[in-house]
Amino acid sequence: MASGSMFDSLEVGGNVFELIEFSLDRHLVGGKVKTGRYGVNVAKVREVVRMPVINPLASSVPGVAGVFELRGIPIPAINLAKALGDHDAPIKENQQIIVTEFSKKRAGFIVKSTERIRRIAWEKVLPPTADRHTCINGMTLVENNEFLFILDLEKVLLDIEARSGYSSNLSAGSFNTPVNQTAQATTNRSFSNGYHILLIDDSDVILRNTSSFLEREGYQVTQASNGVQAKAILEHSLERASAKPMFDAIITDVEMPKMDGLTLTRWIKGNSKLNLIPVILHTSLSGKANLESGKIVGANAYVVKNDVIMLLKLLKEIRSEFTSYKAAE
């Protein structure tokens, strides 16, 4: 099951997305087992496979059942129920693995079974609970008044890495790179370069970490948690007497409740007072199909999350162009 063709079937920038619904058994206190309904964006899914042979790791990593091979590539197998907190989460032969790819990494998440593909409007996605540490980034009401919980599998993986003290090199199926090694490469600057950036992401962690990095590099950062909030900020900025854009660049996530990044970008590029502001899609969604979707809505660049070196490089490249535009105004 490839993700590219499914993603292509959507209206790009139409504020809708498709997810794979899957079931997962959660083991409750007292020995009870409850089957829950969950989902993950198909744009992050490469395929779904039957339970393969899983080889254990040489050292134990919490939540990681081992490594399996898919067409010769070793991929970590994540026991999803266990990673979400279950102490008793046995793996059975009739289960399935959802193979994902985000931030240029691959991982396989063990689930009970996959059910169907759903098309959902972002405005129908309710925000998660107030708990910032949850791995649920939204929920939506489906049949029989049941909630389907949209999981942030990337955060699940990051939590595993944090507990183990290492960052995963998923394409190699190993855990061997110190966490934050890349982010620590440029942390010694403290100056103002006069550039103002609007940063949009529904993840508090990404907002905090990316803002800190950009501010250390001399950028002024205004934050927004979704496309609706960012749109309001941009509209308010145009109410000033000069009616000139106050931002030098916009960096936005793609997957967000209420309004996604593609829809926001299409709105920005359709506004005559904003359309020359460079928009960078900052997303964990990797793959050619997602890159093409960004081009369709008018995004100026695309960078995978956590690649702070490339993000900084892109910002430097667009400075001269936008400076010329502002001078012309």
What order do the strands of the largest sheet run in, or round the barrel if closed? Answer: 8-1-2-10-9
Helix content: 25-40%
Principal-axes geometry comes out as globular
Number of helices: 8
Integer tally of domains = 2
Strand-and-helix sequence, N→C? HEEEEEHEEEEEHEEEHEHEHEHEH
CATH class of the largest domain: Mainly Beta
Q: What class, by secondary structure content?
A: alpha/beta
By CATH, the topology of the largest domain is: OB fold (Dihydrolipoamide Acetyltransferase, E2P)
Intertermini distance: 49 Å
CATH architecture of the largest domain: Beta Barrel
Which stretches are low in confidence, meaning pLDDT under 50 for 5 or more residues running? 1-9, 166-190, 323-329
Strand content: 25-35%
Return Rg in Å. Answer: 21 Å
Biggest sheet, open or closed, and with what strands and sense? 5 strands, mixed
* CATH H-level homologous superfamily name of the largest domain: CheA-289, Domain 4
Summarize the structure.
With 329 residues, the protein is an alpha/beta fold. The chain is built from eight helices and 17 strands.
Describe this structure in words.
With 329 residues, this protein is of the alpha/beta class. It has 2 domains: 3-178, OB fold (Dihydrolipoamide Acetyltransferase, E2P) (Beta Barrel); 183-328, Rossmann fold, CATH 3.40.50. The chain is built from 8 helices and 17 strands. The protein has helices spanning 3-8, 80-83, 153-164, 204-216, 227-237, 261-269, 288-297, 308-328, and strands at residues 16-27, 33-41, 45-50, 64-70, 73-79, 96-102, 105-111, 113-121, 136-141, 147-151, 166-169, 174-178, 196-200, 220-224, 249-252, 279-283, 301-304. The chain has a 5-stranded mixed sheet, with no helix packed on it. A 5-stranded mixed sheet has the order 3-6-7-5-4. It has a 5-stranded parallel sheet with strand order 14-13-15-16-17, with helices on both faces. Strand 6 (96-102) and strand 7 form a beta hairpin. Helix 5 (227-237) runs parallel beside helix 6. The longest helix is centred in the C-terminal third of the chain and has 21 residues, at 308-328. The chain is globular. Residues 1-9, 166-190 and 323-329 have low confidence and may be disordered.
